[in-house]
Write a structure and sequence with these properties.
Elements (H helix, E strand, L loop, with lengths): L14 E5 L3 E11 L2 E11 L5 E2 L2 E2 L2 H14 L6 E6 L4 E8 L4 H15 L7 E10 L6 E9 H13 L3 E7 H13 L6 E7 L4 E7 L2 E8 L3 H12 L3 H8 L9 H29 L7 E5 L8 H9 L3 E3 L6 E3 L1 H5 L2 H4 L5 H7 L7
Parallel strand pairs: 1-6, 3-16, 6-10, 11-14, 14-15
Antiparallel strand pairs: 1-2, 2-3, 4-5, 7-9, 8-9, 11-12, 12-13
Bound molecules: adenosine-5'-triphosphate (ATP) and magnesium ion.
Length: 357
């Protein structure tokens, strides 16, 4: 999709900087030819607990430090960056406006925003992308993006503090759609759900072919698993993280821990179900054919199979490198093979086509 919230400047090879609540992930991709990409740099730095709370960067230094470390260790020379926001501070809606010309869109959009956006519109940055006339004509379909200005400034601010230039502030869900399109080159009628399951936010996206249909963010993710393990079993944050990744095995607690993880997966699937229901009730009905999952928490033990069982649909891991090669330095870190799904947003940002869409 590549809709930018902040600037609409054209730029090539921006570095994708994904500031997540658990870690900063960075990717740099070079486009060699049309549909041919090579990964040039890949890096991940965990953030201490409490750095980002409820989507706000509470403590800026660790984030600045993480960005600088990755740029340095990966020897990234380009300093122009694309980043993204998600969660409650951004709203994306596909709306039908009762107008026909581009000029009228600008005028009617403000009114639409007052209808749809639950925050003070003077505090909001607006952007829209015209999809074209509806099949009946005399109406225009538009993707509306409204993001809280303080959130955008917060995000762009840490990037500037790290000595980099924030050129684009995108939306996580669009970055995921981008990475899906490039790697899977979907047929026009294929309807899929893209679930990016992070630490605190789950981005749900519905896409038909390469056309954006719907998106909504849910406030659930890997952090809920960590918290549940902590509360029920007295794990520390670090212990819970290690357990989740299968780095520690606790024979005597294995069963109990498994039950706790499963109960969080059930809550998560229920939230996704509600979002699908909402989508069906507010949008022209689309039959979802397949689900792709990404984000660190998509790797939670048993989650993929549970989603498959719940939704009775094929559920696959979204591979951000399916159609992207890697040079030696990018391969060397081991991240390319071992933690690919964690990088879906960062790669989606780094893939932004130079042409504005
Ligand atoms: N192998 C694994 N098994 C289970 N959970 C995992 C695994 N690897 C990572 N996670 C969890 O994934 C989450 C991190 O994922 P990700 O990097 O996508 O989130 P984020 O971008 O930092 O967060 P957000 O976008 O929600 O703010 C953490 O909660 C982490 O515990
Ligand atoms: Mg994330």
């Amino acid at each position: 999709m590549g809709l930018s919230v902040l600037f609409r400047r054209k730029a090539e090879n921006l570095v994708g900087v994904d500031i997540g609540s658990s870690a900063v992930k960075i990717a740099q991709v070079k486009q060699k030819r049309r549909n041919s990409y090579q990964l040039e740099a890949l890096g991940l730095q965990p953030l201490p607990e409490g750095t980002i709370v409820d989507g706000l960067i509470v403590s800026k230094d660790p984030v600045v430090d993480a960005i600088q470390r990755i740029f340095k260790s990966q020897n990234i020379q380009q300093d122009q960056v694309a980043t993204a926001i998600s969660g409650q501070s951004v709203i994306v809606k596909r709306v039908t406006l009762p107008v026909e010309s581009d000029k009228e869109i600008g005028e009617s959009i403000q009114w639409e925003v007052e209808q749809y956006i639950p925050f003070d519109t003077s505090q909001v940055n607006l952007d829209y992308h015209t999809l074209g006339p509806t099949s009946e004509g005399n109406q225009t379909e538009v993707i509306l993006v409204a993001a809280r200005r303080d959130k955008i400034e917060d995000q762009a601010g840490v990037i500037s503090m790290a000595g980099k230039t924030p050129m684009v502030v995108d939306v996580d869900a669009f970055a995921i759609q981008n990475v899906y399109e490039v790697n899977y080159q979907p047929e026009p009628e294929t309807v899929v759900a893209l679930l990016n399951i992070g630490a605190s936010v789950l981005n749900v996206g519905i896409v038909r072919g390469t056309e954006f249909v719907f998106t909504r963010d849910i406030g659930i993710g890997g952090y809920q698993y960590t918290e549940a393990l902590r509360k029920e079993l007295g794990f520390s944050y670090e212990e819970a993280e290690k357990y989740k990744r299968g780095e520690v095995f606790l024979d005597e607690l294995k069963e109990t821990a498994g039950t706790i993880v499963q109960s969080v997966s059930e809550i998560l699937a229920l939230e996704v179900q509600k979002t699908f229901d909402y989508f069906r009730s507010t949008t022209r009905y689309e039959n979802i054919q397949r689900i792709y999952i990404s984000g660190g928490a998509s790797q939670t033990e048993g989650l993929r199979a549970y989603l498959e069982e719940t939704f009775q649909l094929p559920v696959e891991f979204l591979d951000p490198f399916k159609h992207i090669g890697a040079d030696e330095s990018a391969l060397a870190s081991g991240l390319f093979n071992e933690r690919a799904t964690d990088f879906a947003v960062a790669v989606g940002l780094a893939l932004r086509a130079p042409k504005d869409r």
